[in-house]
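Summary: Need help interpreting a holo structure output

Steps to reproduce:
1. Submit the protein chain below together with the SMILES for zinc ion.
2. Request a joint structure prediction with the ligand placed.
3. Inspect the structure token block that comes back.

Expected: a single structure record containing both the chain and the bound molecule.
Actual: see attached output.

Input attached:
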Amino acid sequence: MSPPSSSLGKNFRLPRTVLPRAYRAELAVDLEHDGFEGTVAIDVSLTEPAARVYLHAVGLTVTAAKADGAGSATTESDAESETVTLVFPSPLPAGETTLHLAWTGRFSPGLRGLYRAGRIAVTQFEAADARRVFPCFDEPAFKATWALVLRDVPPGVTALSNGAVIDETVDAAGKRRIRFAPTPVLSSYLIALALGDLVSSEPRTASNIPIRTWAVPAKRALTTFAQEAAAAVLPKLEAYFGLPYPFGKLDQLGIPDFEAGAMENAGCITFREVALLLDPATAPLAVQKRVAEVITHELAHQWFGNLVTMVWWDDLWLNEAFATWMAFKIVADWRPEWRIWMDFEVAKGSALVLDAMQSAHPIRAEIQNAEEAGESFDAITYEKGGAVLRMIEGYLGEERFREGIRLYMRRHRESNATADDLWGALGEASGEPIVELANGWIRRTGYPVVSVALGADGAGKATLSLRQQRFFSDPAAKETGAPTRWLIPMVVRYRDDEGVKEQRVLFGDETTTVTLSAKGTVHFVEANAGAAGFYRCRYDGALLAKLGQAASPDGDVAPIERMALVSDQWDLVRAGAETVSAFLDLVKAMAGESDPFVLDELIGRLSLLESRHVADADRSAFQKVVGKLFSASAAPLGWQASGGAPEADDTRLRRAALLRALVVVAREPAAVAEAEARALKHIASPGGTLDPNLLDLTITAAARAADDARFDDFARRATTELDPASKRRFLHALARAEAPAVVSRAVAAAMTELVPMQDFTSYLSVLLSNRATRDEAWRLIRDRWSEVHAKADSPMLLRRLIESLGALPERHHLTEVEAFLAAHPIPAAKQATSQTLERMRTDAVLRERLMPEISAWLKKA
Ligand SMILES: [Zn+2]
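--- attached output ---
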């Protein structure tokens, strides 16, 4: 046994010999002084006698601790392991007992524990911050019931938690005592409390579950869409899982300052306002889709995560990957016209970029402690994980996959499970060797690029030669050790003289040759049909030319495959496997594209090139080329529908994509002037003819040209707008300022109350991406580092802060950021630091390679 003074260490995990069964806790929250005091009775089972009982607690002052039948305990706090140890004079016997504790604590800085968000006090516990409010067994494996009481609640204050309010009494002084229904067994990270100035929508019922959406009073009118979405998707999730919604009621809370997008607390889901509340009259389609997707993601967690919970944080990825995939699947079913899988493809693109680095990590990582768990919330965990599940579903078929999920749910409900339990259930339901396929993708770092060439065998039959190797976006990167091979479930589609055909290939070696069942000429080959696979394709010259021809809007290549083609070709440029002039030729050939998602992909790449990789001397020539490419398609659409029937979503999105190219990227003077005029007209009298999908680009045009007066006006709107998307649009607009007179104001605003903590890192990202503000913003970050650090005071925000530095494009930036982060390391963001520095190194070299190439291309264009 170690002496009491020595630390248990950061990686200490609570022994499994004392198991919590039920918490009965009372908390009095002092909203005036940002503090609280609590008491709890915890029923525990001891599997063996114990004189020391370990619980998690951080920042709490435990004032009393005892156990039934054993009397009082002394306590020892340990900062590093974030525990409090109850030390009993003689061992507690094996069997059942009840622990009793009393404590006091303070609201946490940063957006975690119990914290203040305007006039609301709210909790955020994942991954490991329940311990900042309750002494508890704060690891996901310790599931127990929670019966919560809030006392001393002032009159008029709304109080919400996981269970419904079942009892409320008022004392002579008007202080209320509110008792919530006990929860089913839950891990501590899923407990939630909110107190303050919140009002709810009209309640709505779906599958007998009362649903309410809560907001600060002024935003009550913005709750309708969230109500509609939750009521629509909840029954669809019940049908998928084959199990009823497990938590009795559903509250969705819009919180004015919130770290993540949302948090799936059982029955009491908290959201960033912009991910929940919207004005349907002014919300762009992208905002509506995002809100529906986030609501569905958190609802999917009520089963996958809350009802069945991971044993330890090393399977956090499974929670997130599953909820990510499920949300797209359910929303696609609810609103097929939205084509939400195209949005997934965009998100998958960022995972493909992150996962092409040497600093990438496997989806399933070894996690030693809660801090490391906090580091894992990146695109590899969410989107690559989701894409791998989608790939497995594609391989097994929808029904067999669903049967496996249902089996897993039934078997582990109200309990814990690992990923291998899921693969086992999927294997059992399908009779397929899923463990090998899944683990190959989950446990290996990176992903393959598949080289594809068309040939013929001895008998003249068409063949495909395939070769796989790990893909790196840094041309200088090499695998260390034996080359990784993936078992790749490929679906190949091609056209021969008889028509379009599909062929399945399970490809696990370094190379293979596949004989196609083709008749006559093979007109094109798509080696990642439906873009369902998590790999990149590298076609030989002849195949790429054929695919380019088939990739016209009326050709055989589907829009999602055209997006993947652009995305793959661009990353091959980064990797040094293709030239940027070939890429620009491809973009030129595809400029007549009509699908808005493919257009966004094309224009997004051009925008990136324009902002990072074009020499200053070439900028206006590059902008002219972009303008020329898209003005012919933009002209017939104009700025608004020309009367008659209402326009289809795709038409409106196409117009927005094309105008973005002309206004934001090409900066065509006439288009910019028109955008600015329309923005100002809309601001002066909202509710006019401006399509909400054009708001981002028109406000950007107005913001770039802002003088002091306009800056003041936008700053005011960034605090007073009720609709969260409008509010964010005006806030980010400030960071897009380009006029010398207001640039310093835009940078300085980052440190003021104008930019709330939740928006701080995204505001910095916009500043650092803006040529006019980036150097001054970077100087501010260095000069006022301790304030900057304090304004991003949580692992997730620090991660975003480091990532925002990746927007700085030049080599001198890289040198400065490297030196700065070496002198000011952030232990909670080690992974983000190495990812960001690698990205900056690759991009700095890329920039030097691309600038002369683009210059030469422009001379021919
Ligand atoms: Zn999630």
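--- end attachment ---

Reviewer comment: The mean pLDDT is 95. The first strand starts at residue 18 and ends at 30.
Status: needs-info
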